Amino acid sequence: MTGTQARGGGSTGWAVNAALGAAGLAAFLALGEAVPRLGIVKERFFPPTSRIAGALRDELDDATFWTDLGDTLTGWALGLAIAVAAGVVVGVVVSVVPYLREATASTIEFLRPIPSVALIPLAVLLYGTELRSVLLLVVYASFWQVLVQVMYGVRDVDPVAEETARSYGLGTWARVRHVLWPTALPYVMTGVRLAAAVALILTVTAELVIGAPGLGARIAVAQTSQAVPEMYALIVVTGLLGLLINVGARSVERYALAWHQSVRGEVAV
Fold first, then answer.
1. At what angle do helices 228-256 and 181-210 cross, to 10 degrees?
2. What is the sign, positive or negative, of the torsion defined by CA atoms of 235, 241, 243, 249?
3. Using 50, 70 and 90 to split pLDDT, how confident is the model at 66?
4. 3-state secondary structure of 128
5. H helical segments located in the chain
6. Which residues are CB-contacts of 112 (< 8 A; sequence separation ≥ 6)?
7. DSSP code of 180?
8. In 3D, which of 161, 178, 197, 192 has the Cα closest to residue 256?
9. What is the DSSP letter of 118?
10. What does each C-alpha distance from 192 to 81, 89, 206, 210, 252 come to in angstroms?
């Protein structure tokens, strides 16, 4: 198969997948319109798609919506940045310092399974409804996604490459840069992609439960005021955010790993 044929086949496959995805979405929206109209579910509990779309349009015209969206994205971005930086640094240090991995293994295995939502009372006690409460939960949940992937990546380093670097006199940080990091980077990017999704979930959850400013708090207000179409419209917004974040994370991953076999997808001639 030639390179042109491979690219053509890839374009055709992408078009087919896009068409199937659009058809599936259209069917889902039609089902959402029909179910309440037919009386299968009461409209006051599940409004038709058209009413949700109208409520979404009203939300987009409201200036306070964009303020709340900015608050949510701020908490998500800050929490994710802190978690990624801390996860990479701690993961590398724990993995390369002799005996440190064994010394911290039990502590990591004890802390990692603790659900982040269990820390909500602590966050409220420490910071109330401030942004710092959201950051505490987001960083805690996202940190483990990155840390575990970094440690797996370091563990996957080829011992022959490591010994070769040592024989050439490379120091610790030179080996980290030229041997460890290229091997661990695919794992790191996987951790970042997982952490990005977890960070959004915890951001909205924290706002919803704690009442910190953002889309989660706006959803809670809509629910308590019986503004059901607005509530569903805001839920749709959070779903779209999750989709955009996932697509963006995958794009960054492909860019950062353009040299990697898994991304290049070379086709044998």
1. 170
2. negative
3. very high
4. coil
5. 3-37, 49-60, 63-96, 100-111, 120-127, 131-155, 159-167, 172-175, 181-210, 215-224, 228-256, 261-264
6. 144, 148
7. I
8. 192
9. G
10. 9, 13, 20, 26, 10
Instruction: Tell me the CA end-to-end span of the chain in Å, nearest whole number.
Output: 6
pLDDT level of residue 173 (50, 70, 90 thresholds):
confident
Q: Say how far apart CA 254 and CA 29 lie, in whole Å.
A: 31
Average pLDDT over residues 155-160: 80
Sign (positive or negative) of CA dihedral 195, 200, 205, 207: positive
Per-residue model confidence (pLDDT) at position 262: 63
- pTM recorded for the entire structure: 0.84
C-alpha R_g of the chain: 23
Structure tokens that stand for 167 in this block? 């024989």
How far is residue 12's CA from residue 260's CA, in Å, rounded to a whole number? 24
**How far from 55 is each of 90, 202, 205, 222, 235, CA to CA, in Å?**
45, 25, 22, 11, 11
Write the CA distances from 136 to 140, 238, 243, integer angstroms: 6, 20, 24
At a CB cut-off of 8 Å and minimum separation 6, what does 127 contact?
133, 136
Q: Please, which pLDDT band fits residue 267 given cuts at 50, 70 and 90?
A: very low
Separation CA 269–CA 265 (nearest Å)? 12
Structure tokens belonging to residue 81: 């940045």
User: Residue 147: which pLDDT band, with cuts at 50, 70 and 90?
Assistant: very high
Q: In which element (H, E) is residue 169 found?
A: none
Closest CA to 166 of 265, 224, 96, 214: 96
Q: Which two tokens stand for residue 259?
A: 């040299």
Give the distance, in angstroms, between the CA of residue 142 and the centroid of all CA atoms in the same chain: 8
Q: Which amino acid is at 255?
A: Y
